[in-house]
Design brief:
By secondary structure, this protein is an alpha/beta fold. The chain has one domain: Rossmann fold (3-Layer(aba) Sandwich), CATH 3.40.50.2300. The chain is built from five helices and five strands. Strands 2-1-3-4-5 form a five-stranded parallel beta sheet, with helices on both faces. The longest helix has 18 residues. The mean pLDDT is 93.
Length: 123
């Protein structure tokens, strides 16, 4: 399953539709906290997360998951990113960092790469 963490419901729906059109299962969460409290970490094979959200940011979510030993591959999407954020995310192991708007096929390719890496690592 691909988890989508974004506070914008229209973005959630669009990403879910895109992923499902490619044959992938997806579940949406409106915040990092909602994802963390959901109990859905184990079935999550890839995480697509916004950087800026109310409450915990995407980068803070990444740090929390890493501190807990989680190896879920993360792809960040953002309308407000900068080079510093991208560098921080990628150095911490993100699979990708896409500025909005992005090309759908590029996101799908990153998700496929993340899922392949996840399958090979055996989490």
């Amino acid at each position: 399953m691909v988890a989508i963490v974004d506070d914008d419901r229209s973005v959630q729906r669009a990403l879910k539709d895109l992923l499902e059109s490619a044959g992938l299962s997806a579940r949406c969460f409106g915040s990092a906290e909602e994802f963390l409290e959901s109990g859905r970490r184990d079935p999550t094979a890839c995480l697509v997360a916004d950087i800026r959200m109310p409450g915990m940011s995407g980068l803070e979510l990444q740090a929390k998951l890493q501190a807990e030993g989680s190896r879920i591959p993360i792809i960040f999407i953002t309308a407000h990113g900068d080079a510093k954020m991208e560098t921080q995310a990628m150095q911490a192991g993100a699979v990708g960092f896409l500025p909005k708007p992005f090309v759908d096929e590029l996101l799908l390719e990153m998700v496929r790469i993340a899922l392949k890496a996840e399958g090979e690592s055996g989490r």
